[in-house]
Design goal:
75% helix; mainly alpha; globular; single chain; 333 residues
Length: 333
């Protein structure tokens, strides 16, 4: 196969992977927003536990059918990954409760420079000037779109710091584990999802009661709300898988930068479906700036020297492009 056709194939798979992530991520945000705002199901941590329980069930079914190859991941790495992931989930929920929405958005934006720091320190990655400037432009655009009131207190700041660093570490670890152990998305989910499901379903009801003052077992489950919960869990399987695919292919920093496209789409779809606010001038301006930054980042980081690893301490693994089959494993509301 020629280098051109290989390049075209890679570009097509990259685009399909990213589209898969965008569709599932935006979909689950809209479903969860309806579930929580319309039907009052405000138990975010428990719901996330149900998401991973559904993901675990699917990986077990696919493994029994021979579509997922048996692989090994040390228990110590699973424990570290689950700790990072769970601190990320709980930290984000607590940060949103204790901080203003504006500071919460700033905390989310800070994940990009933190992820860059991890790549520079741990992987010896170096960025060109244009790549750095494009990241700044994305941050500026999303900030203009989303950051309004900004207020913070000591405990809220601590929660935000824990949330940001744990999220950045969890996303870095997705890419790290796939390269180190030559495993793909479904394999990694098969190792980590059961532990996440068990821990979140154990801790979730208590955490949600602490955050909301409501008990998940006392919620009035109706037919429609139950169907929304099932729909949320179903979409979450795709969201979890697509996150692992994208980070495996693009690294955590690129996932974060391009991930803000989902923020723009959620804003637009929120205006369309929920219609609480209009698209005012500063929001539209922020969207334009952010999209321009994403296009610039894609162009700058793909050029020679735009973003490169100076040393390779981990073995190069197979392509993470295809869905896992018995002969070959595959690769964020």
């Amino acid at each position: 196969m020629s280098s051109v056709s290989k390049g075209d194939k890679k570009a097509s798979i990259d685009a399909a992977s990213w589209l898969f992530n965008v569709v599932t991520s935006v979909g689950i945000i809209l479903v969860n927003k309806a579930l929580m705002a319309t039907y009052g199901f405000s138990f975010a941590t428990t719901l996330t536990g149900l998401h991973f329980a559904t993901t675990t069930l699917l990986t077990l079914i696919l493994k029994s059918l021979g579509y997922i190859q048996t692989s090994h991941l040390p228990v110590s790495d699973i424990i570290k990954f689950v700790l990072f992931a769970n601190f990320s989930i709980v930290g984000m929920n607590v940060s949103l409760m204790w901080n203003s929405v504006g500071f919460y958005q700033i905390a989310k934006l800070s994940m990009i420079p933190v992820s860059c720091f991890l790549e520079v320190v741990l992987d010896n990655v170096r960025y060109s000037r244009d790549t750095k400037l494009s990241i700044v432009l994305v941050l500026l655009g999303v900030a203009v779109c989303t950051v309004t009131d900004v207020s913070v207190n000591a405990k809220g700041f601590i929660a935000a710091v824990i949330a940001v660093w744990s999220t950045a570490l969890q996303q870095y670890y997705v890419h790290f584990l796939q390269r180190k152990y030559s495993i793909g998305s479904f394999n990694l989910l098969g190792h980590t999802a059961p532990a996440q499901a068990a821990s979140l379903l154990l801790v979730g009801p208590f955490m949600d009661y602490w955050l909301t003052g409501k008990r998940v077992d006392a919620y009035g489950y109706g037919l429609t709300s139950t169907l929304f919960i099932i729909l949320s869990c179903t979409i979450a399987v795709g969201t979890n898988l697509s996150q692992f695919i994208c980070i495996g292919r693009f690294t955590a920093v690129t996932f974060q930068v391009l991930g803000h496209m989902k923020t723009i789409l959620v804003l637009i779809l929120g205006f369309i479906f929920f219609g609480k606010e209009g698209l005012n001038l500063h929001v539209v301006l922020g969207m334009i700036i952010a999209i321009a930054g994403m296009v610039w980042y894609g162009n700058a980081s793909s050029k020679p020297g735009g973003k490169e690893r100076r040393s390779f301490s981990l073995p190069k693994t197979q392509d993470y492009s295809s869905l896992p089959v018995s002969s070959e494993p595959d690769t964020k509301e």
